[in-house]
Known about the structure:
Blueprint: E1 6-9, H1 14-26, E2 31-35, E3 50-53, H2 59-65, E4 71-74, H3 82-85, H4 89-94, H5 96-109, E5 113-119, H6 150-168, E6 172-177, E7 180-181, H7 194-208, E8 212-216, E9 222-224, E10 226-227, H8 228-239, E11 247-249, E12 254-256, H9 257-268, E13 273-277, H10 292-298, H11 306-324
Parallel strand pairs: 1-2, 1-4, 2-3, 4-5, 5-6, 6-11, 7-10, 8-13
Antiparallel strand pairs: 9-12
Bound molecules: nicotinamide-adenine-dinucleotide.
Nicotinamide-adenine-dinucleotide (NAD) binds next to α1 and β5.
Amino acid sequence: MKNEKVVVCGGGGFIGGHLVADLLRQGYTNVRSVDHKSFDHWYQTHPGVENIVLDLSLIDACEKALEGASVVYNLAADMGGMGFIENNKALCMLTVLINTHLLMAAKKHGIKRYFYASSACVYNGDKQRDPNVTALKEEDAYPAMAEDGYGWEKLFSERMCRHFREDFGLTTRVARYHNVYGPIGTYEGGREKAPAAVCRKVISAKLSGKHEIEIWGAGTQTRSFMYIDDCVKGSQMLTHSDVIEPLNVGSSELVSINQLVDIVEDIAGIKLKRNYNLNAPKGVNGRNSDNTLIKSLMGWEPQIKLRDGMERTYRWIYDQMANKK
Ligand code: NAD
């Protein structure tokens, strides 16, 4: 199994880079990593991997990317944190071309297993109005009222995976990730998500001596955050499982954004004056992952505590920022 060709689409991105690293650690010898960015923008490139630059929104590129492949992980998407997805809905929806063309190429090449990275943004917004949210079960995606733009594209692409499985016999697996964070990812530039953004702001306050922080929204909105190692593990377990329906792959450790800031301040050994920007994008009021199904089907759920993962993430971002300075 470790000799078969595994293709990671979006391999130049945050999760893709970590997945490739993990495949190599496990002894996979035939890994191809594909992304449309030039190599100097990839978060990780690994020797011994076939790294290719291709635009996977095009069918010809998808066919080339999947040549000779057995297992495909589709992690390629035009995405980012709330600041990006609220202001770039058309770009998010254009990602539909990537999954559509990859599925067509997967069917043509007789791919054995096809993994699709969906998102908790597919869930019905009505179930996420209260910060004391009831954790989201897989069935809560319907009746559909996904996050505008990004969430609808994910929901549509999930269904496309389902119909390729039902109609063409392609083995597709779908994970609904809940906020993934960790080192070697985006922490500045507008696409970063809350954990990296909070680390950057706290570090910047520490390095500059200006002890203030801007928080998007009132800080009462709640989320759960999954450390990258759990994400990489859960994705591979799901890919090789018999679970045919979309599955939550996320932490169930719920925190408010204020509590997330508390954690980072504690790691940094600093207290900051908090300025709340109520006009900034903040997303739904509350979102958590109900892990009943993943535990019953796979006997596992994400394990890494937020404090531990944030500590590692903070250290990495700190080194990047301190080196730049
Ligand atoms: P990322 O932006 O770091 O990685 C995505 C990669 O896809 C990028 O490197 C990008 O260059 C590449 N890409 C975009 N368009 C492409 C194209 N046309 N052809 C080839 N490559 C292209 O994001 P990530 O955090 O690694 O996310 C990976 C997947 O997981 C995405 O599908 C994302 O929607 C999903 N997801 C992520 C999170 C999270 O918290 N990070 C949460 C839910 C879902």
